[in-house]
Amino acid sequence: MKLLEDRILKDGRVLEGNVLKVDNFLNHCIDVAFICELGREFHRLYKDCGVTKILTIEASGIGIACLTAQFFDVPVVFAKKSKTTNISGDMYTAKVESYTHKTTYDIVVVKDYLSPDDKVLIIDDFLARGSALAALASLIRDAGAEIVGAGIVIEKAYQDGGKIIRDMGIRVESLARIESMDENGVHFI
Amino acid sequence: MKLLEDRILKDGRVLEGNVLKVDNFLNHCIDVAFICELGREFHRLYKDCGVTKILTIEASGIGIACLTAQFFDVPVVFAKKSKTTNISGDMYTAKVESYTHKTTYDIVVVKDYLSPDDKVLIIDDFLARGSALAALASLIRDAGAEIVGAGIVIEKAYQDGGKIIRDMGIRVESLARIESMDENGVHFI
Q1: How far is B39 from chain A (nearest CA, A)?
Q2: Distance in Å, alpha carbon of B115 to nearest chain A alpha carbon
Q3: Which of A11, A51, A62 to mutate to test the interface with B (most CBs of B within 10 A)?
Q4: How confident is the model at residue A86, as a pLDDT?
């Protein structure tokens, strides 16, 4: 999506440790009008799939998911990062490995909010190693719901997450796919 | 706001420990079309105040803030809950006391995203003791920006947060104000 690639080139900063900083429009300060345009594009891609629910993960996915959900006229469910080891029986749970923070944590969704009738679109800001996305897909499968696909804002296509998730048979649509990035800039596929 | 009070009466559940559970439409599963109506009401209340930015706190404020921001055509900044004690010099920071979780944590906003020119509307889901709201107000003051006011979805008016914040001279508009609640139901002011 050219609009997004241009914005990343203009406002993104590549930091040490393979970090693309886009918190000036995507995940700290949110350019709401701009994110709406991304939501419109996710809708164009998935509008014929009968989506009944959008699933994302706190915190930075929530804004994108809510603004996207308006085009589909469906609710958003966000998986919570669990701080306790007391996962009660009324929750679906999955493990996420965070390579950035070098930790593992659980995400949970209350069972009431995903049902076998649901056709779920996953929305998230980044796809790199695919651990969060795989965990969200696992919650949906546990609920017996259908995974329509994933809408990702920025995919680091030089990492293996995209391949892993697509090899599971899950449709992944990333609005910007980064082939490489370094101090000289960001290059898209 | 009658629409909201009716929804709380229909879908809210009062749990032990003074907890009002509204995660089936507000803060786990988000009824996006409904939250848009709350955003429209916040806009009606604050539309003549020259709002340039909406500030909220992760995670459950983000969806409400983003859907509200569309009516104002302004960006959303969300304060992050800091896990590290390494607060760098490029951030505003404030302490929040969580009575529910019996902990204290820091919230941070990167300095670039609040400036002395900003007129900031704070949006959050709950107001009870007012600790999160006071911390958000403190971040805005540290930036030299103007606090236009706060838009709260549900105020537990039997707790002292609302009085504390209003006594600071901050305008607080709560769409539902709870006078009391117990196993027999919720009563509004």
Answers
A1: 13
A2: 13
A3: A62
A4: 59
SS3 A184: coil
pLDDT tens digit string along A26-79?
Answer: 999 999 999 999 999 999 999 999 999 999 999 999 999 999 999 999 999 999
Contact call for A28 and B73, based on CB within 8 A: no
In Å, how far is A70's CA from the nearest CA of chain B? 7
List residues in chain B touching A: CB distance below 8 A. 23-24, 28-33, 35-36, 58-59, 62-63, 65-67, 69-70, 73-78, 80, 109-110, 112-113
Which chain B residues are Cβ-neighbours of A77 within 8 angstroms? 28-30
* pLDDT > 80? residue A85: no
A127-176 confidence digits (pLDDT tens): 999 999 999 999 999 999 999 999 999 999 999 999 999 999 999 999 99
pTM of the model: 0.96
DSSP string, chain B: -HHHHHHHHHH-EEETTTEEE-TTTTSSEE-HHHHHHHHHHHHHHHTTS---EEEEETTHHHHHHHHHHHHHT--EEEEEEE-SS---TTEEEEEEEETTTTEEEEEEEEGGG--TT-EEEEEEEEESS-HHHHHHHHHHHHTT-EEEEEEEEEEETTSSHHHHHHHTT--EEEEEEEEEEETTEEEE-
Record: contact B67-A66, CB cut-off 8 A: yes
The CATH number of domain B2-188, selected from 2.40.100.20, 3.40.50.2020, 3.40.50.410, 2.60.40.1120: 3.40.50.2020
**Cβ-based burial of A6 (10 A; exposed 0-12, middle 13-18, buried ≥19):** exposed
| Minimal-distance CA residue of chain B relative to A30 | B76
